[in-house]
# Entry
Amino acid sequence: MFADRAKITIRSGKGGDGHVSFRREKYIPNGGPDGGDGGKGGDVIFEIDNGENTLIRFRHKRKFSAQDGEPGGKRRCHGSDGDDLILNVPAGTVIREAESGRVIADMSGENRRQIILRGGRGGRGNMNYATSTMQAPKYAQPGQEARELEVILELKLIADVGLIGFPNVGKSTLLSQVTNASPKIANYHFTTLSPNLGVVDMEGGGFVLADIPGLIEGASDGAGLGHEFLRHIERTKVMIHVVDAASVEGRDPVDDIYKINLELKAYREELASRPQVIAANKMDALYPDGENNAENPLERLKAEFEPKGIPVYGISAATGQGIRELLFCVQSMLKELPSKPVVFEPEYDPQPRFISENLPFTVEKDPKEPNTYIVEGPRIDRMLGYTNLESEKGFQFFQNFMRENGILEQLEALGIQEGDTVRISDLQFDYYKE
# Structure
């Protein structure tokens, strides 16, 4: 089965928590803090694997997680970092944020490896918070939380030229004639159920050619296999529009071209304006006796489209007639276009929305003084450093900080009563409910 789209959930590793401990050795009864730092959580990394050509592995498993970091330990032991999670994808995979559809990364061109979600930082152990005034800190920093994201993976084939047209007009036969690809070929609709790639070798430079199946009326609305394969046209620079000039199935080739171009425009307007060349196929079936018919469909196609700047070539994919001239035309068109491959620019960065500072603090009863509670930690110290508690607005900010960070809730859980004392750094005040 060819799989070119998948929705998965990825999760980076949580940072390990910092450790709270104190040095305890013989003859050193009151050693200083020696709690170690937690390890960093693993990253989620996408990497191109040239051996992969579909996203089938993501159809059976939908959740992928990197390893969490280990917590810190005693004696300044640093927790182990979590292992990164490396997800191998085929070249041409576009990673989108599922909710908005915006591009996070395009795994093509020079972008062969990219970190999509970074693991959480490890928390700092209490050995980091000892100061001249606080020599026995009883708090450590928790590890940064894991980051989780739902993403859509879309495989968009990397090809210079795309073969487009209705089913059964000879696209697969043409591909097999000009490349080393071996598509399955038969005389019925939708024989090709997956895109096929081949390399056209030519003097002066070859190119990659893709057979894009599934285009019918309504393809842009999802009819037939439209949504499944229209995305593969997005990277192509030139399109060979194959039509059945002999009208073997009674179709009008001119009408077919207009219908397919309408579907391209409806899917993505810019696609319809990309360079095209028309391959009027099955010319061998048009004149079985070697004599011209009264109405020449090739001349009709040329009269209709060449004034619009679209060259038309009569070919026979079965016999090889006219194919050489068609390929030289395509090669010439490619030389006039930028050689840089079509790469989708990032539109969404998953990192900033997860960045937050997670400094620790502790709330506890004072073991020495009754009805007294101690709140301490670097987060509190930082807040006090930029807050003027003597002003009304400053004190109101301080109260909001206590409430929003859960400090008041923790004090109430410890059983604080109105009139009890709260000590924060050098600040001391009586507690009253608002």
About this structure: The chain has ten helices and 18 strands. The first helix runs from residue 57 to 60.
